[in-house]
Predict the 3D structure of the following.
Amino acid sequence: MKKYGYADEVLNPLYSCLLKQESGMEDLVLCFMERLPSMFDAIALSHQQSDWPVLTRQVHDMKSVGGGYGYPQISEVSSRIEYALQQDTSQIAYLIQELEVICMRALQGADTINQVKQQA
């Protein structure tokens, strides 16, 4: 995952609410976490290239899968990016930085889940 903004700082891990609702979903969530960095990198690249149609599709996909895997925060920020693409593109860089931080927090949470699984 590219360092798009300010995600170098230590952040509080973010965990999927899906894991609280249904036991045994760790592998499914971890599979999503493996794809998350490349999904974010694609979003960042589309933004850097000002490819608004592709970026619109990518953030829509991120919004859908984020919520589906128990990360409503990913969906919420992705939705705000979608709105900004229709209304005011000047806010997109800030929102993508916000999305990066949330993704980094989710990845930190996934690392914790992986460590627990390996110790079991």
Summary: The two ends are 28 Å apart (CA to CA). The chain is about 75% helix and 0% strand. The mean pLDDT is 87.
